[in-house]
Amino acid sequence: MSEAKDAKKRKEPFPGAYYLAGAITIGLMLLFLVLGASLPPGVAGFLVAFVLGLTVSPKYVPFFLFAAIFSALMGFLGREPQVAWGGVGLLLSQLVVARFVKA
């Protein structure tokens, strides 16, 4: 029975891989927090939305494209540069994902 549990249990690629991945994730989150706070609103919105948009699964691209267009329109109409340029960044990242990533 313990062999069946061991077979079902996920194995790390190397010891401590999940801890390293968690540390990298937290580090990147802190980097985006610092960049978002120190850059002008439009640049910060574009950068954060573009990079995070690259992590989207290709099967969700149509939904994120809709959200990007909506965000860009509402941002430009409401004169909110972070939202507007974030929508543009998200739109571009979804085009990259749709073009270069195969599901």
From TrEMBL:
The name of this protein is Uncharacterized protein
Q: Which UniProt keywords apply?
A: Membrane, Transmembrane, Transmembrane helix
This protein's species is: Thermus aquaticus
**Residues that span the membrane, as ranges:** 20-53, 60-77, 83-101
